[in-house]
Amino acid sequence: MIGSRRERRILTPEHVQIRLTPAGLGSRFLALLVDFVITMGATAVSGVALALVLPGGLGQAAYTTCAFVISVGYPIYFEVRHQGRTPGKRMARLRVVDGRGLPITIEQSFVRNVVRALDFAPVFYGFGGLVSILDRDHRRLGDILADTLV
Questions:
Q1: What is the pLDDT along the chain (150 residues), one digit of tens a residue?
Q2: Does residue 112 sit in helix, strand or coil?
Q3: Which ranges in the chain belong to alpha helices (H)?
Q4: What's the rounded Cα separation, in Å, for the pair 89 and 111?
Q5: Buried b / exposed e along 9-45 (16+ C-beta atoms within 10 A)
Q6: What is the separation of C-alpha 113 from the centre of its chain, rounded to a whole number of angstroms?
């Protein structure tokens, strides 16, 4: 055990032992906050742009679709294409890896980010925070289901 965090030790097929230290709740929250500000900013800008170019109901429908794509697509894109790091995770010096320490797949990223809606319930990551406190590797439900580690 390192400090208050536990290590996850993995033995590779080549018999090399790798030690992964799960991120703490504070650094995960900081990364989440940074990513939340970025996605909300991008959503607001797209909403204003769409309201200017599309009429009423069509603009609202396009905005809702755009907000969904940004909120789900942003973390998936960065986790898969940028070595498991969204800008918030990069700032907090975190990375998402699969349960064996390998880069995560698009399927794993999709699962962990779609389940984020359940983690968010009932209020700002109440359920996800509770699961993170109870899990020995501080994983939220999305990480457990996708077999990923931050």
A1: 344 457 888 887 788 888 888 888 889 889 989 999 999 999 999 989 998 998 878 988 999 999 999 999 999 999 999 999 999 999 999 999 998 888 999 999 999 999 988 888 877 777 888 888 888 888 889 999 999 998
A2: helix
A3: 25-53, 56-81, 87-91, 106-114, 116-120, 126-134, 141-146
A4: 18
A5: ebeeeeeeeeebebbbeebbbbbbebbeebbeeebee
A6: 6
